[in-house]
Specification:
With about 200 residues, this protein is an alpha/beta fold. It has one domain: Adenoviral Proteinase, Chain (3-Layer(aba) Sandwich). The protein is built from 7 helices and 7 strands, in the order βαβααβααβββαβα. The protein has a 5-stranded mixed beta sheet, with helices on one face. Helix 5 crosses helix 6. The longest helix has 18 residues. The chain starts with a strand and ends in an 11-residue tail after the last helix.
Length: about 200
């Protein structure tokens, strides 16, 4: 069991627990078996890593940002993302693992560039990101209105070049975690801050 504080994933409760089953820990040794609870743990580790190195990067909860959660309760996800963006908009990059239903990808929102990058390890496969794009755009525009910024649309780059997984196998979770680490290296987080507006 992993206990998280509300501030880690911008949830509404003061403290919350989620289970990482024994089979999940065993599956950690199998690249193709990482599940959402392990991606949540990895995201929490990335939060600690970026705080320790004072990197201007924020992370969202992969479970909340999954397609199944968006499909079940889109307004909840928009509210969650809006609340998180209020605190994270000062960051150079906001990342989260996203379950498209059959594939895990990394999504990186870069407010100062006005872009959303999709790190998909099987980008040759056609995917419909319209629900996720709507959630991100709606939350981002809410923050723009709140801060009095220009309400410019985000550019979504769904075919961002990244490592590709073999056509056989289900290793997307591993590649998503790897892309998180790689994104920290390739995104120019050292540049001087440019305001979102």
């Amino acid at each position: 069991m992993v206990k998280i504080r509300r501030l880690h994933f911008f949830r509404s409760q003061d403290a919350e627990c989620f289970l990482v089953g024994f089979n999940g820990l065993c599956n950690l040794l199998k690249i193709d078996a990482l599940d959402v609870s392990l991606l949540r743990c990895f995201s929490l580790c990335m939060i600690l890593e970026t705080k320790a190195h004072a990197l201007p990067v924020g992370f969202l909860d992969p479970e909340t940002m999954s397609l199944s959660t968006i499909t079940c309760d889109k307004s909840y996800v928009v509210d969650y993302m809006t609340k998180a963006l209020k605190q994270l908009v000062v960051k150079d990059c906001i990342m989260f693992a996203h379950d498209t239903g059959d594939q895990w990808i990394l999504v990186a929102l870069i407010p100062r560039w006005g872009k959303v990058l999709y790190f998909d390890s099987m980008r040759s496969e056609p995917r419909d990101h319209s629900l996720l794009k709507n959630v991100i755009n709606e939350a981002y525009l809410s923050i723009c209105r709140l801060k009095g910024c220009d309400e410019k649309s985000l550019v979504h780059v769904t075919k961002f070049p990244c490592h590709q997984q073999p056509a056989v196998g289900n290793e997307s979770r591993f590649y998503t975690a790897n892309h998180m680490m790689e994104a920290l290296r390739i995104l120019d987080v050292e540049n001087p801050k440019v305001p979102m507006c």
